Every structure is written in structure tokens, then in C-alpha cells.
Amino acid sequence: MSETALNAELAIRLAGWRVLPVVTITSAAEALGVAEACLEGGLKAIEITLRTPQAVEAIAEVVKRFPELQTGAGSVRNAAQLGAAREAGARFAVSPGSSPELLLQANRLGIALLPGVATASEVMAAVDAGYRCLKLFPAQALGGVAALRQLAGPFPDVRFCPTGGISAATAPAFLALENVVCVGGSWIAESSLVAARDWKGIAQRAREASQLAT
Prior knowledge:
By secondary structure, the protein is an alpha/beta fold. It has one domain: Aldolase class I (TIM Barrel, Alpha-Beta Barrel). Helices cover about 45% and strands about 15% of the residues. It has 10 helices and 9 strands. It has a 6-stranded parallel β-sheet with strand order 5-4-3-2-1-9, with helices on both faces. Strands 6-7-8 form a 3-stranded parallel β-sheet. Helix 2 packs across helix 10 (about 200-210).
């Protein structure tokens, strides 16, 4: 399957999820707790960032324990990380930016990639490489809703999953935009809740976030 087809298929999935929890963990046990809480709250997917040494193992454990949850790898920065995520069973990958090597490796491995962009030039480069569903990061710092409205003009065929600085309060404004298929957010399982293993608190936030998808 080409990168265009993989990315298009991911766009459809993102549109169905609407809210993608972005999670950073320090153990597989934490990841399992967050995953179960997200499922309990009605969310369909989770992005576990590769920001800690335990992340790849955690992805593998979550995929094994909760096959009904679409588990992806986030903060993927290079081909080696992409390969490790694919080997762990990640259903998709998300990168903070993009590079020709990363885009090429995603196609070689047959894994759906949501590449990150921050400028119009980066959007153009991603489109030229066959991607039309992109992550805008860091969304809030780049202008938030106003920036996405501006990008809609020159890029009517591109859809975005804005991530970075989005909260439960601001997510609805992003989701109301026609060029936004999904929002990524760390507010659902923020680090303090994960560290405290407050699974009930995370489940409640997941439940509230799942209502945004309706």
C-alpha cells in the first residue's frame, strides 16, 4: 500500500476517533492503567510517546492486553524509532515533524504515519510526498484555530490533527473546523494523574473527551 493510501486510511480512522490521548509513561504498568482507563471512558485510540526508554515495551504490552484499542507510537523522530514501534505492534505512528527518510521508511514498513508540520512549506513538502492528513504541532503556539483557518485557504485538500497546548476547554473550537479531523491532547492523561496512578480520574477525563467525538 502506498503512503498516500496508508495516510488516507489513517485520516478516516482519526475522523472516527476525534480525540486522541497523547500519553507519556515511565513503565508498562502505567501504560496499561492509562489504556484501560481510556477504554473505560469510551475512547478508541491512544498515542504512547517514545519519550521514555520504556515506551516501546509499553506499546507492545498494551497491544497484547487491549487489542481492541488502536495503539500508536508518538514522538517518532527517525527511521529506527519507527521500526521499533512497528515491531512492537503499533497500529500507527505520529511524528513531531517530518523528514524524507521518515516518510520513506513509513511506506517501506507499511505503517500509517501522521507526520508533523509547522509551516506552509512543510505542508507542501508533505503533500508532495503523498500525505494529506498531517499533525499541526505545536498547534496552540502556532496560532491555534486562527492558524488552521488560514491554512484552509491554500490547502483545501489537507486535513489536520492539531496537537500541542490543546485542553478540554479549547478542543471543541478546533473540532468545529472543517479541516480538522481529530485533536491530540495530553490533558486526558496528564503526567500528574499518571504518576499518581489516578485511573479513575483519567477515565473520567476520557469519558468527557469521548463526548466531544459525538
